[in-house]
Amino acid sequence: MFDDYQELQRHVLCAQDFEALAQTKLDEALFAYISGGSGQEITLQRNRTAFEQTTIMPNSLEDVSQGHCQWSYQDHTFSAPILLAPVAQQAMVHELGEVASAQAAEAINQGIVLSTLSSYDLETISENSSGWKAFQLYAQPELNDSLDLIQRAKDSGYQAIVITIDTPIQQVSLKAKHLGFQLPTSVPSNLKSYRPVELANLSEKDSYVFQGIMSHALNWQTLEQLITYCQQLELPVWIKGVINPQQALRLKQLGADGLIVSNHGGRALEGIPSSIEVLPQIRQAVGSEMTLLLDSGIRSGQDIFKALAIGADAVLIGRLQLYALAVAGAMGIVHLLKLLTEELQMTMALCGCETLQAISSRQLWETQQCFK
C-alpha cells in the first residue's frame, strides 16, 4: 500500500491509522479474525476499557533532558520496552510474514517472539535477521517434539523460550465465524516433521474437549520437564498467558525466569479479567525482581506507560503488528514501533520520568475503579 516511508509518515500518525488502513486492505473475514477475540468478545472489550479507565497524573518542571526509554534484559539493551508478540501465520497478511517482522524489530533494536505456528520456520527467521529473538512454544503431543523445538531454537540463536499455557483450546470470535473465516489447514512450517494431534479414536461417549483436546494439553508435570530442559540449555523461560496470581507464584517457584501477563488479546477464555487489571496482584505475588511483561489491549505509547506504571517491565504488541505488516510490510512495523516509542517518551517527559526506572504508580491518578 505504501512504497515510500515519507508517504507512510504523512498518512499514518498513530496506531489506529494502521488499523483503519488494514481494514480496507484485508478480506473482511480475515480482518474480523485479527481484530476479534473469543466468543462474543467480552474480554476483548474489557481489555480496552481497563486501559481507558486508567488515568495518568502529569508532573512538569522536572529536568528530563537526559532521558531515554531503553530497557535491559540480561545482557541485551533494547531501544524501548516493546517486543513483537508471537502471532501465528503472518503470511496471511503479507508474503514475507515473520521474516519482515523480525527484520523490522532488528532495525529499531527491539525484539520479536516467534510463534510456533509461524508461516516460516524458526531457522529461516534466524537466517534472515540477527536481532534479539525468543521462540514461543506450544507444547506438542509428544514431549520429545517439544524438546526438539527448544533445541532447534537454541541452535538457531534464539535467546529465550516463551511457553504459552492459556490456549490449549481456543474459540474463534462468533463474528469471524459468521463471515466464514477458517484458519489455514496446512501444517505450520515448524511442525512438519512432528506427529500431529490425533482425535480420530474418540468414542461416542468421549468428549471432544476433555478426552480429545485436553488429553494432549500441557500440564504442570510436562511444564516442569520443559523448564528443566531449558535450564540445562541455559535458556531463560518466560511463561505466557498468566492471569491468576496464585498460578503466577507457582510458576515462579517452578523456575520460570519471567511471566507474560496476558489473556491472549481476548482470544482465550471468554469473560476473564483484563491483563492490566490483574497485573498489580501478580506483581505483588512474584515480587519486584521477577521479569513481568504484559500484552492484551495496548494501542498506544500511553498504554505502554500505564502498564509500566502498574508493574510491567515491558510489553508485547500483537494485533498492531499485523495491521502494520498488512499495510506496509517491514517498513510499516518499523513506523509503528517508532510511533509507540515516541508516544511513550512524550508521556514519560510530561510525567517527569527521565528513565523507565522512574515510572511507578505515583504517575497514575488513584481514583480508577478497576484496581479497587
Contiguous runs where pLDDT drops below 50 for at least 5 residues: 367-372
Fill in the CATH topology.
Answer: TIM Barrel
Number of helices, where a helix is a run of at least 4 consecutive DSSP H or I residues:
14
So what's the CATH class? Alpha Beta
Helix percent band: 40-55%
Q: Looking at this structure, what is the CATH superfamily? A: Aldolase class I
Describe what is shown at a glance.
With 372 residues, the protein is an alpha/beta fold.
Structure, described:
It is a single chain. This protein is α/β, with parallel strands linked by helices and 372 residues long. The protein has one domain (5-195, 220-371): Aldolase class I (TIM Barrel, Alpha-Beta Barrel), CATH 3.20.20. Helices cover 42% and strands 11% of the residues. It contains 14 helices and 10 strands. The strands form 2 sheets. An 8-stranded parallel beta barrel has the order 3-4-5-6-7-8-9-10, surrounded by 7 helices. Strand 4, helix 6 and strand 5 form a beta-alpha-beta unit. The protein starts with a helix and ends in a 22-residue tail after the last helix.
Keywords summarizing the entry:
single chain; TIM Barrel; alpha/beta; disordered C terminus; two-stranded antiparallel sheet; 372 residues
What's the arrangement of secondary structure elements?
Elements: H1 5-11, H2 15-25, H3 28-35, H4 42-52, E1 71-73, E2 76-78, E3 82-84, H5 97-107, E4 111-114, H6 122-128, E5 133-137, H7 143-155, E6 161-164, H8 174-178, H9 208-212, H10 220-232, E7 237-242, H11 245-254, E8 258-261, H12 275-286, E9 291-294, H13 301-310, E10 314-317, H14 319-350
Parallel strand pairs: 3-4, 3-10, 4-5, 5-6, 6-7, 7-8, 8-9, 9-10
Antiparallel strand pairs: 1-2
Helix pairs in contact: 2-14, 5-14, 7-10, 11-12, 13-14
